[in-house]
Design a protein that fits this description.
Length: about 550
């Protein structure tokens, strides 16, 4: 813990810059919460098939559920038959697990296959968000420190190392900055200013990332399909992040017959590139992540080509890449680092952070805002970082194994039978994850009574208004009455959350659908109809 006293840089100036920056970032984080009800009260168009968890749709609508006569009133007695009307046409093309619970009394008012195991897709994020709010608290903020070891000589040489101490903050140098019209490397630009203000003109030692609170050998989730490992929505988990752990590069033509010039954007000195390109012929370039060996670029670029942005791929070693970008910032500012880039672990202890040696700190938005971003927009990077960082902060052993143990203890406190659950990641991309509709509803009930329950509820997408539910449930019956988490991967379409009837009575529900052999749009349409039944339930 850093004593609350003045640091060697201007603290007030720093606080002013942080506050100013987050006033802008806040607009991005909460844009989805704006009241757009007046603009969305038109009846929804015909449902269309979707192939992502983003809520965006394609024009294919094959397999949609048949049109039914509008149900205007539902009672507890008629609810089972009303549900059956919507599920019967889909029984042969999908497997459903359903549970609906009265939040006030805890009474189960409907269930179907509620104790069977299902792959949850992004409904897994409900557990991740709940765990983080419980373990860290809604007002927790991540802190990423930059500090020095050794003394600063009169000539401005730091006779020691620069050290970055991260906590796994998913917002660090993230896409949020670009969306707020700030440079994505804003933090590093600010840190360069802090290093210069401390009187450092060169670094005789190394640039080190202190990962002593992490188990670096246990930061890969199990069960992610090989086919997604090159995709932007499946980045790696790491103690230090940048650009949501995605690589962005630009290719320029070299001399005829020679390799193209490949540059990182922003520049990253020291991060490995396997360059298998050639200058000449038609431009055709491919990029792929090479596990444990950086990134490979292959193909050709025409001699007269303008700079070509390359496809975005996940970074193989995000912590090393993030450090390489910072070193490049220092070098371009005329502050050379003589030593290597290095990632430090528990086996290689470093001098501790103190008030006297700290140079800069980045403080994230409050955790409840980060969880809201993860939930509403189904951000996989945020989910994985949040999940593993919980154990890094709580146990100083950040890893999937340690976070699973914390989650098991948390769920048992809520009365959930953890034997019915299998957990392999924080986002839901793993095809090995298993949950039951009953466990989801128990979680929803537990969070409704939790001290952080309102933050959990507010983090969910709102039907017809924001996030992944912006384009769904826009009718007057369901608009703004459903707060839920969507979930979609191959052959899986899920929806779980809360629905309020016209009198304000709240129901927790979980609709887990696996083995989908029809249009996902047909499943979503049926799920939306079930939500409508709950909103009409008297």
């Amino acid at each position: 813990m850093i004593p609350k006293k003045s640091w060697k840089y201007s603290r007030m100036r720093y606080v002013y810059r942080i506050i100013s920056m987050w006033l802008v970032i806040a607009a991005v984080l909460f844009a989805a919460n704006a009241d757009v009800a007046a603009a969305t009260r038109k009846q929804p168009r015909k449902a269309r098939a979707t192939n992502t968890d983003s809520g965006k749709t394609s024009r294919s609508d094959s397999g949609s559920a048949p049109k039914e006569k509008e149900v205007t009133s539902v009672s507890l007695e008629t609810l089972p038959s009303a549900i059956a009307r919507y599920l019967a046409p889909l029984e042969k093309s999908s497997r459903w697990g359903v549970m609906i619970v009265d939040v006030e009394t805890g009474a189960v008012i409907y269930e179907q296959n509620a104790r069977d195991r299902f792959i949850p897709a992004s409904n897994r994020k409900l557990f991740t968000g709940a765990l983080a709010l419980d373990q860290l608290g809604p007002d927790f903020t991540y802190r990423t420190y930059l500090y020095r070891t050794g003394e600063i000589r009169p000539d401005g040489t730091l006779a020691g190392n620069l050290v970055i101490l991260p906590q796994g903050d998913p917002t660090f140098n993230s896409e949020l900055f670009r969306q707020a019209h700030l440079p994505p490397d804003w933090i590093y630009r600010d840190w360069v200013d802090k290093v210069r203000a401390a009187g450092i003109k060169s670094v005789a030692g190394e640039l080190i990332v202190d990962c002593s609170d992490w188990n670096l050998k246990d930061l890969e989730p199990r069960g992610w399909p090989t086919r997604i490992l090159q995709d932007y929505y499946a980045p790696q988990t790491s103690p230090l992040t940048i650009n949501e752990n995605l690589l962005q590069m630009i290719a320029r033509p070299g001399k005829p017959g020679e390799p193209a010039i490949i540059e990182f954007a922003p520049p990253a000195e020291g991060y490995p590139i396997i360059n298998k390109t050639v200058t000449g012929g038609k431009t055709s370039l491919q990029v792929r992540r090479i596990p444990n060996d950086g990134v490979e670029v292959s193909g050709s670029i025409s001699q007269g080509s303008k700079p070509v942005p390359l496809p975005t791929v996940p970074c193989d070693n995000p912590t090393l890449y993030a450090a390489a970008v910072f070193r490049s910032h220092l070098h371009r500012a005329g502050i050379p680092v003589s030593g290597n880039l290095r990632i430090s672990s528990k086996r290689d202890p470093l001098p501790k952070l103190t008030t006297e040696n700290v140079l800069a700190v980045y403080i994230s938005p409050p955790l409840h805002e980060i969880v809201s971003r993860m939930m509403k927009h189904s951000n996989n990077h945020f989910a994985e970082q949040i999940y593993v960082s919980v154990s890094a902060i709580r146990t100083k052993q950040g890893s999937y194994t340690a976070s699973k143990k914390l989650e098991e203890e948390f769920l048992q406190r809520l009365g959930i039978d953890t034997r019915a659950i299998r957990v392999e990641d924080g986002s839901g991309l793993s095809e090995l994850n298993n949950i039951t509709p009953e466990s989801v509803c128990q979680l929803l009930l537990g969070m409704a009574r939790h001290p952080a329950g309102q933050f959990f509820y507010d983090s969910l997408a709102v039907g017809g208004l924001d996030g992944t539910l912006r384009g769904r449930m826009k009718s007057d019956v369901t608009l703004a009455r459903v707060h839920a988490k969507t979930g979609y991967i191959n052959n899986v379409v899920c929806l779980s959350g809360y629905a309020d009837n016209r009198n304000g009575k709240r129901y927790a529900f979980s609709f887990l659908v696996n083995n989908v052999r029809t249009s996902p749009a047909a499943i979503k349409q049926a799920q939306d109809k079930l939500c409508e039944l709950l909103c009409r339930l008297d």
